[in-house]
Design a protein that fits this description.
Blueprint lengths: L3 H12 L27 E10 L11 H18 L3 E11 L5 H17 L3 E9 L4 E10 L15 E5 L4 H10 L7 H10 L5 H10 L4 E5 L3 H12 L2 E5 L7 H4 L1 H5 L3 H7 L5 E6 L4 H10 L4 E8 L6 E5 L5 E2 L12
Parallel strand pairs: 2-3, 7-10
Antiparallel strand pairs: 1-4, 2-4, 5-8, 5-9, 6-8, 7-9, 10-11
Length: 334
């Protein structure tokens, strides 16, 4: 069996086909000290994500092909949250030397699958040895000058919208942890965890008509990501509990894993849906954009006028403020 250490760094890159030139005028891929790509008019959006074994994923439950796909999908979701179209990405990967070559081959196969699906060229990166797997993804996108969606644009009176449905990824994670078979409702939940789909078409559709005032992707959980919007916009955001969508598969989570479906929908994270605010007069156009892009969009709250700014309020069906059962994920918290 060939291992990564038996090939060495450049042998590994050669074996994975990473020295192949990029096509298109103005593009220069791996092989030099820097990659080159043509810059469109407007602004370049740049995002970097770090994924660490046993913090963001477990090799025991995450196949390498899915890991490669998901690593890039998370960064493309960041571009989507800014209304930016993907251009290129770089991947840095640290691996234990005793991993089989097939792990790296499968990882890059998933990475290329996501790269091709969302037109985000793999422009380069770096490799190193490590005691566990570390993945760093940097993605670049383009957006018209002054048109990027920011977290700081929410205004009192704005609607709060959510794309798709949240909680399913966390449900899939708990199904994997319990060793539940990829069948029935667990199948969709696990797929949502291993193969997230960035809401790029929806974002670009909203951007083309300037329909949203602020936006964030739901990577850490609806409640905590809404808090980021509230803090950056110096606003108060209300989430109406009855309006948060719960899919039939998510409702099965209680039976399958013992977890509260609403808690996961509010704070589960890694769904990579879009949470955004928009003026009320844009409701019809937002719903139409959702229909045109095949993406469900749900009105789940509002940006409120209040003296106590920078916070999120969760209201019950009776209109009473309640504590969230789960806020979301934060690094370095005990």
């Amino acid at each position: 069996m060939k291992t990564i250490s038996s090939l060495g760094e450049f042998g590994l890159l050669e074996a994975l086909g990473l020295f192949k030139p990029l096509s298109g005028e103005g593009w220069l891929g791996p092989g030099d000290d820097c990659a080159l790509f043509p810059a469109p008019k407007g602004q370049i959006a740049v995002t970097t994500d770090l994924l660490v074994e046993e913090v963001h994923f477990r090799l025991s439950t995450t196949p390498p092909r899915d890991l490669g796909y998901k690593a890039l999908a998370a960064s493309i979701s960041d571009l989507a949250s800014m209304g930016a179209a993907p251009l290129a990405c770089t991947i840095s990967l640290a691996l234990p030397g005793d991993l089989p070559l097939s792990f790296a081959e499968e990882f890059y196969a998933g990475l290329r699958e996501c790269s091709e699906k969302y037109s985000c060229a793999l422009a380069g990166g770096d490799t190193s040895s490590s005691g566990k797997v570390f993945i760093s993804v940097t993605a670049f996108g383009s957006v018209d000058s002054g048109k990027a969606f920011l977290r700081s644009g929410a205004k009192p009176g704005d609607d709060l919208w959510l794309s798709g449905a949240t909680g399913e990824s966390a449900g899939g994670f708990y199904c994997l942890e319990k060793g539940i078979a990829h069948a029935g409702p667990a199948k969709k939940l696990i797929e949502r965890h291993l193969r997230p789909e960035p809401r790029l078409s929806l974002s670009l559709g909203l951007a083309s008509e300037g329909l949203a005032n602020s936006m964030i992707d739901v990577s850490d959980g609806v409640f905590i990501d809404a808090s980021h919007l509230a803090e950056r916009s110096n606003a108060v955001i209300r989430i109406d509990k009855p309006s948060v969508p719960l899919t039939p598969e998510l409702l099965e989570v209680k039976r399958l894993t013992g977890k509260d479906p609403f808690a996961l929908a509010l704070g589960g994270g890694e769904d990579y849906e879009l949470l955004f605010t928009a003026p009320k007069e844009n409701r019809a156009k937002i719903k139409k954009t959702g229909e045109n892009t095949g993406t469900a969009v749900t009105l789940i709250g509002e940006v409120e006028e209040s003296a106590k700014k920078g916070r999120v309020r969760l209201l019950s069906g009776a209109g009473v403020e309640i504590e969230p059962p789960l806020r979301g994920f934060e690094h370095f918290e005990g």
